[in-house]
Known about the structure:
The chain is α/β, with parallel strands linked by helices. The protein contains 15 helices and nine strands. It has helices spanning about 5-10, 20-35, 55-60, 90-105, 140-155, 170-180, 200-210, 210-220, 235-245, 250-260, 270-280, 290-300, 310-330, 385-390, 405-414; strands at about 1-5, 40-45, 115-120, 120-125, 160-165, 185-190, 195-200, 350, 355-360. The strands form two sheets. Strands 4-3-2-1-5-6-7 form a seven-stranded mixed beta sheet, with helices on both faces. It has a two-stranded antiparallel sheet with strand order 8-9.
Amino acid sequence: MIFDMAAVINMIRPTLAKNFREYVSLHIIPYFKSKMSDNTQRLDAVWDTYPDDNLKALTQQKRGNGARIKVGDGSTPIPRHEWNTSFLKNEDNKKELFAFISKELSATKVNGRLLLTTHLETVLSNKDIDLSSLEPCNHAEADTRIMLHLAHAAEQGHTIAYVRTVDSDVVVLTIHYFHTFGLSELWVGFGCGKYYRDIPVHTICSSLGPAKSQALPLFHSLTGCDTTSQFFGCGKKTAWAAWASLPNLTDTLIELTQYPHRFTLESGYMTIIERFIVIMYSKGCGAKSVNEARHHLFTTGQKTLDNIPPTQASLYQHVKRALIQASFYWSQALAVQQNIPNFSEWGWNKDSRNKWQPLWTTLSDASQACSILLHCGCTKACTGRCKCKRAGVKCTTLCKCEGGCLNNNCDEDN
């Protein structure tokens, strides 16, 4: 059994514990035992680390920042009522808490079971075991480190595994790597409360087939994950339907996962991805490029400005951000030491506070050219109540008159 501990800590509130040491003995250990069966032989507690230079800093900033409370030796009174609303929103609090609980767990006998717990780059154990294939590990995220621990468990002879998480990234990665592990069964306990469900990864992999399972991580990062944005108005179901109608997208995703440096603006990969995005926004649009689709969908009145595809320049940066997540972080999940390229080469740049922010586009600010977006619905002379004429601008191809009207000829007549 492998636990995504950041999820566990958020789920298990300290309702009984008076201090942090009691939180481990009265809440964490009983939770582990409640999940165990007679056949459970091993427990892995996998923690996130929080390096200063990471792509999830933006997500963490959006969650807010709580007051700093030191954990110390565990005797500090625990903030019961501010657990989720304040304490866990402070990154320094979580770093210290995770390290403290990890050390406490490594000294715990859980009904004679083997217990491994990550601690920064190392792994602690309550029994003697070879950990050379697990440490030192530089993974920042628990989602990839969980894959590393699954592979280790399979190497040690385990054939059935269970992962507890609330992170959809973990579900995607277990599907992607299932055939690599060599397990007979892999279950993911996903969600919490009334939304909890057990996901049979082995069954899903059998249904999807090896090609789609291999392409899934890049599909997931391309359509929205923790470090990439979702396309406005296009959820995962819409994206999945678009993938089904464009079969050659699968090979593109697989090849880019393996060879991300082959991706360029002029490559055939970009052409296929553009067509995929167009289908997501409009199944009936025959445009091959997003720029063509934007013009067609907006000028024909089928979509508002907020509901058309992104520009090619913006999409290009978005795909690069998807690639650094899927083709570098996730594709190296089974490597103890990950080799990650410079973020600035993959759709990111640093702001004035030296924090990484998405490079949304290389185009100039649209507000400088907003007047050209004004268009009228006139079918005749474009005089009198014409929106363009009243605003003092010429009609363009965005207008229903397509610019061939009196409004554009008035200067010539004068």
